[in-house]
């Protein structure tokens, strides 16, 4: 069956924007890896390369005031939502100009003006917070959905089950989006979950769910578009499981020996960037030359972000005591 | 002034604040229909309705986490943990999230929320339901911790907690719920955080205490007065912020100090207070600071054993006498 034309779903400029953002995220993450090896970025660094379709497809399907929460692999989520790459890079460098003044780092990006409500580094910690934001939205009749992103490893935390139960019980607008990249660090889903079909785990909470191809940005977009509107109208939670893959290790410290080279190559052959580029060209939305220009533009943005981060000042010593209390 | 119980004072604080501010919501296990295990939330559901007063599943970590999210989303939630013992199930949301979010996100968000938690021992509830965990909360920067001793302080501190734009761990002592005292009627009566209250003035020795230990310290002071020892009893009221200035000033005057704590002695708040006294007025001390503490044991059930584990009036009297008699 022929797929629906992209133009029937979104206008050309938005489709191009989505591709630009996927490329920007890829370039940003690969640059982070380089800056990490140079010692400019330290601490933990979890890269998103391979999963871009999820962040981009989702964000374009959500309302701008819908809340987004994520885990610790969240640079792309923040940037696609509108965070300036230079301020994200400065945060990773630990500089005062960072999005959180250098206090959060890679795992704790946050911008309330973008309704980007944080990267959380305790696995599953964001679930109850998303439920609380959804409660506030419903209480204040704002019609905002809380979109809660998490990995496959998080579904065995108690908070996942407590929050699914709670969101359904109180009838709250939470969109749960599982980015199933097949591994919690080095433990595969099959070795961690009695039921590896994560989307089926919502049955016990009377929450509908769907599994989608997480390497297909339009599949994600359509699933989130439908899911978020259903959540908004019904004031009930919904869960999307996106099957995706991270091309790099869990973090920069992970050589990834638990995955076979063949497996990694199989997934890289399904890289969401070229897959989307081919569709854009086939439908005459962009030319090959324009694709090249998009990549050059992304590289330039990331280079400028690195320069900005390098040249930015460190936080003043006094900042260590600031922001603990109001 | 009206005489009322500690329980009713807390209940009145909740009602007055909820009437004043429609963004305040209350939830917890059995707080609505059942009106609270200790009846502190009596009448709230009837007056404020099920949109603002909600029963929750038994999911303590999520009870706190949903409050964190709701506070981020513009509400002022008050979450009740049925007892402070269950806070241990919620420590991830309390310590990893509630106390850190403002800081790690660069001060971009406030969490105006209160966790209410009854606690303390003395009701023969055995090891899992008799804990005094106040030190656990004091230890972590990023939240305030209040623990009132009297009905007036209970009301005034809870109202301040609800109006605070920081997260507050509000501890209530289960054995004080029925205690009575005069409470100001003024709906704007607030007790500030970070201010000890000198509950009894004296010149011979300072007794630093909090919550039920303050009540016992005052009883001990009454007995000691008969023997000619004038105790100054300083009630901490808030454990964080800790008002060292007030108790240090008191010790400078008296030259001696006893700290009474219901929690375990090892690494307990008494150790912190003693250190603050040494730091603040070592030159004024005429004897080492003594601690009267909960025993370092899991709480036993038997009344015969339990009574040994929690400081008693006679323990405070003995410690004060020894400290006053000490010659250095």
TrEMBL record, chain A:
Keywords assigned by UniProt, alphabetized: Membrane, Oxidoreductase, Pyruvate, Thiamine pyrophosphate, Transmembrane, Transmembrane helix
Cofactor: thiamine diphosphate
One Pfam family named in its UniProt record: E1_dh
Enzyme category, top tier: oxidoreductase
TM region positions: 114-136
Domain Dehydrogenase E1 component: 21-315
UniProt keyword annotation of Amino-acid biosynthesis present: no
Catalysed conversion reaction: N(6)-[(R)-lipoyl]-L-lysyl-[protein] + pyruvate + H(+) = N(6)-[(R)-S(8)-acetyldihydrolipoyl]-L-lysyl-[protein] + CO2
EC number, UniProt record: 1.2.4.1
Keyword Transmembrane helix: yes
Gene3D superfamilies: 3.40.50.970
Subunit structure as annotated in this protein's UniProt entry: Heterodimer of an alpha and a beta chain.
Its job: The pyruvate dehydrogenase complex catalyzes the overall conversion of pyruvate to acetyl-CoA and CO(2).
Name recorded for this polypeptide: Pyruvate dehydrogenase E1 component subunit alpha
Species for this entry: Geomobilimonas luticola
Lineage of the species this protein comes from: Bacteria, Pseudomonadati, Thermodesulfobacteriota, Desulfuromonadia, Geobacterales
UniProtKB/TrEMBL annotation, chain B:
SUPFAM superfamilies xrefs: Thiamin diphosphate-binding fold (THDP-binding), TK C-terminal domain-like
Cofactor(s) in the UniProt record: thiamine diphosphate
Record keywords, A-Z: Oxidoreductase, Thiamine pyrophosphate
Lineage top rank: taxon: Bacteria
Keyword Disulfide bond recorded: no
Annotated signal sequence range: none
InterPro entries found in the cross-reference section: THDP-binding (IPR029061), Transketo_C/PFOR_II (IPR009014), Transketolase-like_Pyr-bd (IPR005475), Transketolase_C (IPR033248)
Location of the Transketolase-like pyrimidine-binding domain: 4-179
Pfam families, alphabetized: Transket_pyr, Transketolase_C
Gene3D superfamilies from the UniProt entry: 3.40.50.920, 3.40.50.970
Residues in coiled coil: none
Protein name per the record: Alpha-ketoacid dehydrogenase subunit beta
Natural source organism: Geomobilimonas luticola
Taxon lineage: Bacteria, Pseudomonadati, Thermodesulfobacteriota, Desulfuromonadia, Geobacterales
């Amino acid at each position: 069956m022929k797929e629906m034309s992209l133009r029937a779903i979104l206008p050309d400029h938005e489709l191009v924007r989505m591709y630009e953002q996927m490329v920007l995220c890829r370039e940003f993450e690969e640059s982070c890896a380089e800056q990490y090896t140079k010692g400019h970025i330290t601490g933990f660094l979890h890269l998103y390369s391979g999963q871009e379709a999820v962040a981009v497809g989702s964000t374009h399907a959500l309302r701008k005031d819908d809340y987004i929460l994520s885990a610790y692999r969240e640079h792309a989520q923040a940037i696609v939502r509108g965070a300036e790459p230079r301020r994200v890079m400065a945060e990773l460098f630990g500089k005062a100009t960072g999005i959180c003044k250098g206090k959060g780092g890679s795992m704790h990006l946050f911008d309330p003006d973008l309704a980007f409500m944080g990267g959380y580094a305790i696995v599953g910690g964001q679930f109850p917070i998303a439920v609380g934001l959804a409660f506030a939205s419903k209480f204040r009749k704002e019609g905002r959905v809380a979109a809660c992103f998490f990995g496959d490893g998080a579904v065995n935390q108690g908070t996942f089950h407590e929050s699914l139960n709670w969101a359904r019980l109180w009838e709250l607008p939470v969109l749960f989006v599982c980015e199933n990249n097949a591994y919690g660090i080095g433990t595969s889903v099959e070795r961690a979950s009695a039921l590896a079909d994560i989307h089926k785990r919502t049955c016990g909470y009377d929450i509908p769910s769907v599994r989608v191809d997480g390497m297909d940005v339009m599949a994600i977009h359509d699933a989130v578009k439908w899911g978020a509107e259903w959540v908004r109208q019904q004031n009930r939670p919904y869960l999307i499981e996106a099957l995706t893959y991270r091309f790099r290790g869990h973090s920069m410290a992970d050589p990834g020996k638990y995955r076979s080279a063949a497996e990694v190559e199989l997934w890289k052959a399904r890289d969401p960037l070229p897959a989307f580029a081919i569709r854009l060209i086939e439908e005459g939305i962009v030319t090959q030359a324009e694709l090249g220009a998009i990549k050059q533009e992304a590289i330039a943005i990331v280079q400028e972000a690195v320069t900005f981060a390098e040249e930015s000042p460190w936080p003043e010593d006094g900042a260590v005591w600031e922001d603990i209390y109001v | 002034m009206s005489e009322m119980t500690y329980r009713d004072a807390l209940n009145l604080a909740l009602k007055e604040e909820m009437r004043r501010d429609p963004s305040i919501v209350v939830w917890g296990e059995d707080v609505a229909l059942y009106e609270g295990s200790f009846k502190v939330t009596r009448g709230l559901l009837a007056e404020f309705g099920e949109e603002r007063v909600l029963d929750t599943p038994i999911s303590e970590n999520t009870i706190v986490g949903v409050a964190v999210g709701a506070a981020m989303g513009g509400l002022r939630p008050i979450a009740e943990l049925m007892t402070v013992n269950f806070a241990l199930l919620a420590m991830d949301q309390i310590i990893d999230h509630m106390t850190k979010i403002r800081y790690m996100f660069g001060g971009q968000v406030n969490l105006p929320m209160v966790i209410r938690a009854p606690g303390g021992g003395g009701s023969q509830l055995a090891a899992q339901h008799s804990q005094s965990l106040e030190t656990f909360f004091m230890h972590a920067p990023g939240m305030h911790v209040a623990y009132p001793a009297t009905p007036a302080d209970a009301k005034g501190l809870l109202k301040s907690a609800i109006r605070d734009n920081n997260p507050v761990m509000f501890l209530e002592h289960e054995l004080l719920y029925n205690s009575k005292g005069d409470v100001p009627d003024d709906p704007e009566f607030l007790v500030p955080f970070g201010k000890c209250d000198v509950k009894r003035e004296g010149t011979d020795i300072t007794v630093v205490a909090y919550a039920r230990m303050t009540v016992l310290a005052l009883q001990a002071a009454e007995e000691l007065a008969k023997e000619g020892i004038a105790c100054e009893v300083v009630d901490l009221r808030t454990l964080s912020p800790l008002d060292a200035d007030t108790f240090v000033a008191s010790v400078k005057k008296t030259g001696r100090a006893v700290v009474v704590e219901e929690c375990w002695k090892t690494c307990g708040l008494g150790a912190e207070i003693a250190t603050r006294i040494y730091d603040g007025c070592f030159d004024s001390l005429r004897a080492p600071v003594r601690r009267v503490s909960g025993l370092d044991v899991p709480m036993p059930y038997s009344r015969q054993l339990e009574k040994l584990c929690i400081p008693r009036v006679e323990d405070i009297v003995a410690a004060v006498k020894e400290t006053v008699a000490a010659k250095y």
